[in-house]
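Quick one: structure tokens for this chain, please?
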Amino acid sequence: MFKAGYVGVLGRPNAGKSSLINHLIGEKVSIVTAKPQTTRQRIQGIFTDDLGQIIFVDAPGFVRGDKGLNKFLHTEYTEVMEESDALLAVISLDEKDPKHIEKLLDSMKASGKPWCAVVTKTDLSFMHRTPLIRDMVTERGGQLFTYSVVKPEEQQEEFLVKGIQQLLPESPAPLYDPEIYTTQSLRELTSEVIREKCFEHFQQEVPYGLVVQIRKYQALPDIDRIYADIIVSRDGHRPMVVGHGGKTLKSVGTMARKDIERASGKKVFLDLHVKVKKNWMSSKPMMKEFGYVSTREANS
């Protein structure tokens, strides 16, 4: 029987959630950097085969917050957990504090939803931790899988995919066209790619206060013309993003353009500007303008 449903992919920041989804699907769905809070909004990646369709919902890493951007990230995480058909706990093998793992697994069990867990970064030299994590998962009624994006094994991937599919409800047909791999529009993907390249270029303080806004997207027959603003929260961050003689901004644009061209399949003209909107992360109207509003709040 064919199965289909939404799987909330949850875990600590930098656990490898986005890398895992990208690898399983075989396409770049979520941006990936070494910095925390790279994923800010839920992203859907779609895996389809003859047995089922898994709609992976990539949630932000778990953070606590009662205001501003942190509140939005916490709400996104909570809503993904509540609205998914099943859950996948992603645990990095280099997680230093076992209490963080226990807290994640306790939340999986408390959700009342079907769930399993996967240990990522198994290429690292911490394999002695795997049996300990397996015991934690088993004690809570879950099943543990292992996976390495750096050194993938076909059997590991097959076991993981089948394990997730077993958690999903039966469905007479796929929920989405089997040919698509994400529900993101090219405009949304473009914004995320530009932000990814910014994260790769700048220190931690700058990315946290940085957002990308697409001002205009012209999809022409032979070229896409894109005009975007990189918005920072402090005056002092603007010259850092622009760089001496505009070199840093040009480098960000060049790297982003190449990724966007791969996604769109045609040439891209990318025009970037840097603007300052002070403390936008604490302003509800500006957060809403940049799309950082929960689904429930948007529909209310």
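The chain has two domains: 3-165, 186-299.
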